[in-house]
Amino acid sequence: MTSATRPYGTRGTRGSVGSQGGTGPGASDGQEAAAILERARVSVDPELRAAVDALPGPLRRIARYHFGWEHADGTPATGNAGKAIRPALVLAAAAALGGPAARAAAVRAAAAVELVHNFTLLHDDVMDRDATRRHRPTVWSVFGDADAILAGDALQALALGMLAEDPHPASTAAVARVAACVVELCAGQQVDTAMERRDPGEVALDEVLAMAEAKTGALIGCACAVGALYAGAAEEDVDALDAFGREAGLAFQLIDDVIGIWGDPRHTGKPAGADLAVRKKSLPVVAALSSGTQAAVELAALYAAPYEPADLDRTALAVEQAGGRAWAQDQAADRMSRAMSELARAIPDPESAGGLLSLAEFVTRRSN
Amino acid sequence: MTSATRPYGTRGTRGSVGSQGGTGPGASDGQEAAAILERARVSVDPELRAAVDALPGPLRRIARYHFGWEHADGTPATGNAGKAIRPALVLAAAAALGGPAARAAAVRAAAAVELVHNFTLLHDDVMDRDATRRHRPTVWSVFGDADAILAGDALQALALGMLAEDPHPASTAAVARVAACVVELCAGQQVDTAMERRDPGEVALDEVLAMAEAKTGALIGCACAVGALYAGAAEEDVDALDAFGREAGLAFQLIDDVIGIWGDPRHTGKPAGADLAVRKKSLPVVAALSSGTQAAVELAALYAAPYEPADLDRTALAVEQAGGRAWAQDQAADRMSRAMSELARAIPDPESAGGLLSLAEFVTRRSN
C-alpha cells in the first residue's frame, strides 16, 4: 500500500480495529466521536421530532414510542433513540467537503437518513421477531405487527417526502440516492431472511459479505454520500464517500459479528455467544465453515445439532480454530484500510477528514 | 345545486350510481372507460415493467409474481395485474388539463402511482391475512411475510425514486404529494386494523368515512392531482382534481361496501354477504348500527353473536331495514355529485373532462 492511499496511517492501525475499550488512541477518538455524535444529535433532533410530530395521531404515537420519546402509554420518556451515527455521518461529510454552511444545510437530509434507518429497524424487528431494541420492547411486540409495518412505511414516505421538499439544489439527487439505497437494504434483508432457512454448509462467504454490504454498508455509505451531495461535491467525490461508508460499515459488521461470539456480556448486554446459540450464519462462522479445516467439520456438526449451553465454549473454540475470528479481524482491518483510502481520495487533508475518521473508528471500536 | 356546479348532469344521474350492469349510459360509459384503461395500460406497462425489472433478483421475482407477470416458479404468466385505474387517472388528468403532450410526459409518474398502490396491496394483504388477490394466492402466502414486506418497501422506494429522477419540472412537487399520500394511506390502514378489534357499537360513522377517505380516496385523489401537476395546472386546479378523486374514491368505496353485502356472487366472485360473515364494520353496517332504529338493535345482536350461515339473510335485511343500504347509495350519489362539482371547477369544458368522467363513473358502476 502506498502512502498516497493511506495518509491517515497513525490512526488506522490494523491491530487496533475492533479492540474492546482500552486506552490509547482508541479512547481519545472515542471521546472525540462522542462529542461529534452529541453535536449531531443537537442539530438533527429538532428536525427529526418535527417530522415525526407531523404524522397523524396513532402513527405519531407509534413512532414516538419507537424513538424512545414516549412510553407505550403515551407519557413522555427521556429515552434512548440510538447513537444516531448515520445523521452524524451526513453532517460530518457535509462539513468535511463544504464547511459549516454545508453542515447547516444538510440537517434536514440528516434527519431523513435517520428516518430511513428507523423505518428499516421497525420492519426488520417484525421479520426477525426481535422482541427488544435499545433495551425496550420492540414496536411490534407492544402495538402489533400491523402498527409496526405501517409506522415503518410512513417513516420511509416521510423521509423521502421531506428530502424532496428541501429547497437545497442537492435534494433531488439525494432522494434518488436514498431511494436506491432503500432498495438495496431490502435486497440485503431479503437475502438475510432467506439465508436463515438454508443449510449453513450451503452458504458461501461471498454471499454473506455481499448481504452484509447491502444490509449494513449501503446506508452508511449513503449517509456519507448525501452529506457530500449537500456540500456540492463532484460526483467522483460523492462516490468515494459512499465507498468509504460502505467499507467502514462492513468493518463495523465484521466487528459486530466478532462481538456476537466473543463479546463480553457485561459490555454487550447480551448473553455470551448469543449468535452461536441461535445458529446465526454470521461472517466469522461462515468463514470458519468454509475453511476446509478439521475444526470446520466439528463446527458443522455442532451447528447441525440443537443448541446445548454446554457446547457453547466448544462451538466458539471451533470457529476460532477454523480461523473465523482471525479472518474477521483481518477483514475488518482490511475494510477500514480501504475506507481510509477512499476517504483520502475525496478529502486529502486529514484535518478536514477528522470528523468522518473519528466516527468510522468509533463504530469499529465499539464494545457494545 | 346550481347548474354551474353540475355541468355534467346528463351523466351524473343519481339513481344510476352503483347500479349493477344493465344497459343505458352506464354500459356505453363502461366501454369508453375500458378503452381508456386499455390505452393507459399500453402506455404505462413498459415503464412499470422496466422499473420492476431494475430491482435486484429475488425482489424482482417477488414483484413480478405480484403483478401477475410470472408464476411462483418464475415461469412467465399472462396475468391479471388489476385494472390499473390509478395510472389511467394520472394520464386522464394530465390529458384533460394539458393535452396529449402532458399525457405523454406523465407516463413515468403514472407508473410511480401504480407502484405505490401495489406497495400498499402487498402490505395490506400481510396485515389483513388475505390469501387471495386478483384470483391468485397473495405474495405473503406464497413467499412468506418477510418477502411481502420487503417487496412492498422496495416498491415504495422505487416509486418515489423514479419520480424524483424524472426531469419533468413537476417531479419534485409530485414526490412530495405522493409521499404525503402514503402517510395518509398508512394512517387509514392503521385506523382500519385498529377498528377490527373494537366493538361495532363504539365505531362512529364519521370515523369510518374518514378512514375510507384516507384508505381509498387519498390515492385516487393523489393520482388525479399528479396528472394535473404534470399538466402544469394552477395549484387550485391541482387541489380540485385531488378533491374530485377523493370524492369519487369514497363513492367507489361506498358502492364496494354495498356490493360486499348485496352483490351477486356470480359477478363478485365472493360468496353472498361475505362482508357480513366476517363481521366487517363496513359503511352500510355502521350507518345501520347508528340509525337508532329497532333494526339497528337487531343488527347489533346479530353482529355480537358468532356467524351462522342461516342468519345471513336476516343480517342483510336488518342492515337494509335500518337504512344502511339507502344511506350508502345516497352517500355515493352525493359524493359523485361533489366529485363532478370539483371536476367542473378545474375543467369547465365537459369535452375535456370526458376521460376523467368516464373513469369515475366506471369505478362507481362496477359490479365486480
TrEMBL record, chains A, B:
This is Polyprenyl synthetase. GO terms for biological process: isoprenoid biosynthetic process. Belongs to the FPP/GGPP synthase family. Pfam families: polyprenyl_synt. It comes from Streptomyces phaeofaciens. InterPro entries: Isoprenoid_synthase_dom_sf, Polyprenyl_synt, Polyprenyl_synt_CS. One of its GO terms (molecular function) is prenyltransferase activity. Keywords: Magnesium, Metal-binding, Transferase. Residues 18-27 have a biased composition (Gly residues). Gene3D superfamilies: Farnesyl Diphosphate Synthase. The lineage of its organism: Bacteria, Bacillati, Actinomycetota, Actinomycetes, Kitasatosporales. Residues 1-31 are annotated as: Disordered. NCBIfam families: f2_encap_cargo4 (NF041169). It comes from the Bacteria.
